[in-house]
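Researcher: I'd like a candidate sequence for this fold, 82 residues long. If you have to choose between options at a position, lean toward the conservative one.
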């Protein structure tokens, strides 16, 4: 199983220890480009559809909050990617 598939399966299971780097793997595979914003704000932009997912990169720990995982899953569903 690929790193992407493992990360996607984990995302959909909504684990409490899902990391920013796993999210980056998923978004890159779906064709999104990451842009830095102010502070810890990060945007994932899809160059073809212009879909934007704007999040705060977690710190100091890399784990995403459960509500952020819900936002990501909802965005990917709206875009027809999952």
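Model: Candidate sequence:
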């Amino acid at each position: 199983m690929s790193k992407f598939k493992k990360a996607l399966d984990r995302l959909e299971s909504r684990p409490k220890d899902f990391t920013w780097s796993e999210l980056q793997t998923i978004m890159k595979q779906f064709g999104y480009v990451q842009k830095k914003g102010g502070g810890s704000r990060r945007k994932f932009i899809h160059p073809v559809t212009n879909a934007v997912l704007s999040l705060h990169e977690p710190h100091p720990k890399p784990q995403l909050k459960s509500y952020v995982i819900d936002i990501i899953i909802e965005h990917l569903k709206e875009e027809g990617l999952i």
